[in-house]
Amino acid sequence: MTEMVYGAMPAERGEPILPKWWRTIDKWTMSCVLILCGIGLLLGFAASPPLAERNGLGPFHYVERQAAFGGMALVAMIITSMMSPTLVRRLAALGFVFAFAALALLPVFGTDFGKGAVRWFSLGFASVQPSEFLKPLFVVVTAWLISASQQIGGPPGRMWSFILCISIVLMLALQPDFGQAALVLFGWGVMYFVAGAPIMLLIGMAAAVVLAGSFAYANSEHFARRIDGFLTPDVDPRTQLGYATDAIREGGLLGVGVGEGQVKWSLPDAHTDFIIAVAAEEYGLILVLIIIALYTMIVVRSLIRLMRERDPFVRLAGAGLACMFGVQAMINMGVAVRLLPAKGMTLPFVSYGGSSLIAGGIAVGMLLAFTRTRPQGEIADILRGRVR
Amino acid sequence: MTRTPLRPLARILHARAHGQNPDVIERENIRLRHEEMQDRDRARAESRLLVLAMVFFCAFLVVSARMGILATSEPVEPVARAQGAQIAMQRADIVDRDGRLLATNFETHALYAQPPQMVDPEGAARRLAEIFPDLDADRLLRDFTGDRKFLWIKRRISPEQKQAVHDLGEPGLLFGPREMRLYPNGRLAAHVLGGAGFGKEGVTAAEVIGVAGVERQFDDWLRDPANGGRPLELALDLTVQAAAEEVLAGGMRLMNAKGATSILMDVRTGEVISVVSLPDFDPNDRPRPPTEGEPADSPLFNRAVQGVYELGSTFKIFTTAQAIDLGLVRPDTIIDTRGPLRWGRFAITDFRHYGNSMDVTKVITKSSNIGTARIAQMIGAERQRAFLDSLGMLDPTPFEITEAAGGQPLLPPNWSELSAMTISYGHGLSTTAMHLAAGYAAIANGGQYVSPTILKQSGPQLGPRVMSEEAAAASRAMLRATVTEGTASFGEVPGYAVGGKTGTADKPKARGGGYYDDKVIATFAAIFPSHDPKYVLVVTLDEPVDTSGAEPRRTAGWTAVPVAAELIARVAPLLGLRPQVEPRSTPDITLTSN
Hints:
The complex is a heterodimer.
Chain A: H1 2-6, H2 17-24, H3 27-47, H4 49-54, H5 61-82, H6 85-109, E1 121-122, E2 127-128, H7 130-149, H8 157-174, H9 178-194, H10 199-219, H11 221-231, H12 240-251, H13 263-266, H14 275-307, H15 312-336, H16 354-370, H17 378-384
Antiparallel strand pairs in A: 1-2
Helix pairs in contact in A: 3-5, 3-14, 5-16, 6-7, 7-8, 7-9, 7-15, 7-16, 8-9, 9-15, 10-11, 12-14, 14-15, 15-16
Chain B: H1 9-17, H2 22-72, E1 94-95, E2 101-113, H3 121-131, H4 137-145, E3 151-157, H5 159-167, E4 173-182, H6 190-193, E5 195-201, E6 206-212, H7 213-217, H8 219-223, E7 232-233, H9 238-254, E8 259-266, E9 272-278, H10 303-306, E10 309-310, H11 316-326, E11 334-336, E12 341-343, E13 346-348, E14 357-359, H12 360-365, H13 369-379, H14 381-390, H15 417-424, E15 430-431, H16 433-444, H17 469-485, E16 499-508, E17 515-528, E18 535-542, H18 560-574
Parallel strand pairs in B: 1-7
Antiparallel strand pairs in B: 1-2, 2-3, 2-4, 5-6, 8-9, 8-18, 10-15, 11-14, 12-13, 16-17, 17-18
Helix pairs in contact in B: 1-2, 3-4, 9-18, 11-13, 11-17, 13-15
C-alpha cells in the first residue's frame, strides 16, 4: 500500500557502485600502482632539480608538476577502473578516433620543442603527446576487433586491426618515434598471440627475425657496430649509458644517500629515460629491486587473473595492456643495465612527463577495469552440466 | 575428424514431424558450437597467457639479477676506449742492419680543456698564452667561456710544459698521454722512414699511423701486436747513410745542383745499404705536401724512387752487354762510328768526334752515341725491349717504400727501331735511379737480376739470369776501362778499382717541346771493386754545373763522377772493404854502384 501511495522506492539494480568496485577490484595491483606513483614523486625530488636549475625554475618546479599530473592520473585511473568493460570499450573506441586523428594531424599542428621529432601538441600550459594516449586505446580497439572475429559470422577483425596497427606504426616511424612504434607493434603481436596465432607462423617469424638479424649483422657495418658496441663488456664512460652504469655501481646496495647522487647532474635524461639510474645511485639496489618487484607484480598478477576470464574481448584487451605496460618498464630498465641496446623509453608512472603519466593512469585504469572479479558463468556451467 | 552438420537434419525433421519449431534446435546447435569454440579459444589463451606471465617474470628476474650484479661490482675508474676498436699502443721500432735505432716511440702528453669544469677561465687563458707563446689568449678565453664542452689545446707538449700547465692548478685543463713517433737521427734516411701521424684520437690515447715511406708500407706489420715488439730491421747502415748524406750534400753544393740522389746497393742480396735524396726533411716534423709548384721540387719528393728521368749514357752498357750476350759483337769488334747517323729526319751525333770507327770497348769508354745506336740496330727493338724488361726497367721497382710505386718508367708509345736506337744510349726511356742500380747490380753479380730491397736479407737473393757470365764479365771490364781511360777518369779511388759509366741527359722542358740547353741530369753508375764487385753506387745530380773552370761544365764526368768518387772513398772503409793496392808499375831500377 505504502508503495502504491508514495510511489516505489527506486529499486537498486544490483550493488551500489563503490562497494562493488571495492569488492571486485584487484587491490594488489592497485596498491602497486599507488606505490609506484609515490616512488615516482620521491625520485622526482631527486632527479629533477638539475633540470629545473638548467631551465631557471624553482628546484621543485617539476616535482610540483609531477604531483599535479600524478593526482590527475590517479583520478583518471580510478574513474576508468569503475567502468564496465563495455563502457570502457565504447569510450575507448571514441577516444581512439580522436587520438588517431590527432596523431595524423601532428605534422600540421605539432611542435618538436627543438628535439627534432614532431610528437607534441603545445597547449600553452602543457603539452600533449597523442601517441601516449593512442597506445592503450589502440589496444582496446584491437581487442574488440579480434574478439569480434572470433564470433561465428564475425568480421575479419584481425586483418582490420593489423591494417590499423601498420598505419599507426608508419605514422610513428615518420615522426620519428621508433620506440612507440615498436611498442604498438608489440602490443598487437601479443594480442594476436593470445588470440591464437598459429604456432608455425610464430616459429616462422622468429626464424625470419634471426635470419634477417644475422644477414644485417653480416652485411651492414653500421648494424654490426651497434651490436658489437652493445656486446662489448666495456662502455665509453662519457655516454649516457656509461654514466648510468657508473651510477648503479656507485649506489651499491644501499645507495649513496638522498640528494648525494651525482649522475643526475651529468645525464640530460635523468628525470625520464634514466630515472632508474638515479634511483640506483641515491637509494641503492633495494629501491630498484622494489620497483622491479612492483612492475612484475602488476604484470604477472594481471595476466594470471586474465587467465580465468571468459570474455575474449576482456582477455585480449587486458593482456595487451598489461604486456605493453610491462615491456615498457622492462626496456627502460634493460637499457640502463645494458641488457638491451640503447632506446629511449619512459618508465611508466615513475618517469616525469604529463602525457605519459595521465595516459598511463588511463591505461592502468582500463587494466584494473578488465581484471575486476566478474561472474564467469561457472554456475551456468554447472547447471548445464558442462564440465571442463 | 568427424564433421558435425550445421543443421542436425534428423532432429529438425523429427521436430517438424511433431509440429515443433526447428529454429530452436538450430539456435541451440549454433550456441553449442559457439561455446565449444570459445572453450577451445579460452584453453589456448589460458596457456598462452601463462607463457606470457612466465616470460615477463623471467625477464624481470634477469633485469634485477643484472642490476644486482652491477650494483655489487666495484665501481672502477672510468677507462676511456675509443668507440669500437681499441687503440693499439706501442708501435714497433725500426732499426738499421746492425740494430741501431732509426724510429722509436716517445711518451708525451696532449693538453685538452673541459671548459665547464674551469674555475678561472680568464686566468687560465692568460697564463696558458704565457706558457705557449703561439696561443692567443683572447681566442682561448672565447673558447673557454663559450658553450664548448671539450677542446684540444695542444696535441704534443714537453714534460716541462706539462709541469708548467699542471702548476696552474686549473681543474678544467687535462692531459692525455700521447705516444709519438720519434726519429732520433733527425733528417737521416728521412725519405726511407717517411714519417707518422695521428690517426684515431681519443682522450687517453691516439693511434700512430705511418704516412709515408716504410712507416706506411709496413704500417700493419709495425702495429701488429703479434710480432711481440720485434723491431723492423732495415738493410740500411746508419753510418754509411750518414756519410753518404754528408758527401752528397757537399757535392750538391759544390756542383750547384738543385737536387741529388745516391743509392748504394749490395749486388748479391739487393739490400740497399744507403739511399739518399736531397733536399730532405725532418720526419719528426714532416712538412705538408706542397699545394703549388713542381712536386719534384718539394723536399718530400724521393728522387731515388720517384724521380723518373732519362738517364742518358749510363744505359749504353746494357746495349753492349746484350749484344755480347747474344754473340753479335765482342769487346774488340770494330763499330762504324761515322757521324752523324741519320734515321729519317733525325740525326744522332756524338758529343765529340772520336774517329770513323772504334771497337766496342772504346764505344763505351768514349761514350759514343752513334756506336751504341748501331749496336742497337743489330739487336733490334723486340729483343732490346725483352732484355730491359728482364732487368725490371719497364715497371715500378719492387722497392718496399710506398713512394716506389709512383716511379713508373715512361716508355715510348711504340717501340720502333728509332726508339731502340735512342734508348740504347739512354734517351726515350725514363727510369728512376733505383732501376739503374738494379740493372748495374745484374752486371756486377755475374748476370742475374736482383731486386732492390730495404729489408735486411740473410743471404744472396739472386733472381733469374739475364745475361751470361761472360757478357757480364766483359761489361765489367769495359766499365773499369771507362774509369781508367774514359769519361769517368775522376772516378778512380785508389785501392777500390771503381768501374762505372757516366750519363749526361738534357732535362726535358716541363711543358713539353724539347730539352733545355743548360739543364742536365748527370748520373754516374759505378760498381766497386770491379774485379769482384760487391756494391753498386748510383749518383745523380739534378742540374749540376761545375763553375771551377773557364766555362761552365755540366757533363757527368765533371760533376757526378767526382762526387761519387768521394762517396766511395768515404763509405768503402765503412763497408769493411779493404783497399787492394795494385802493384805499381815499378820504375826501372838501375843498379848503380860506385
